[in-house]
Every structure is written in structure tokens, then in C-alpha cells.
Amino acid sequence: SVVLDWIANYFWPYVRISSMLMVMTVTGARFVSPRIRLYLGLAITFAVMPAIPAVPQDIELLSFRGFMTIAEQMIIGIAMGMV
Predict the structure, then answer these.
(1) Where does the sequence pass through the membrane (predicted)?
(2) Where are the domains of the chain?
(3) What is the pTM of this model?
């Protein structure tokens, strides 16, 4: 459906960006609430989406391949946040 395609386009970058923000030194500190980090990730995702190429729509969010893609995006985001 169109709605799931739209959500998937934003979901993969959001997972990567929010994972990065969760482990970054500046935003990963205890005095920054997890809710603020997630909202910041959402805002950054909406800001960078026009610059990101279209995501392939052959991955369903609630499938094994979807869960493996989520894990992949989280690992990439955590690695980016550690740098």
C-alpha cells in the first residue's frame, strides 16, 4: 500500500539516525532524555529525506528480511555514533 511504502521510506533512515543519536557522546548523556533524542532523530530524518535516494520497496517491515534490515541499520547507526 502507499502508506506502508511512505513509512518504509522514512523508517530505515530513522532507525539509523536514532541509533546514532543514542550512542553519541553529546546526545547519549544521561541529562538528555531518550524522548528528546528520538524526537531529534525524527526531525533530522525529515530534514535529510529530500537528499536521500529512494529506498527499494521490496522489503516488508514485518518480515524476517525487514528485521534483519533493522538490525543492519542499527549497527551502522551505532558505528556512526561511536566515531
Answers:
(1) 12-31, 38-56
(2) 2-82
(3) 0.81
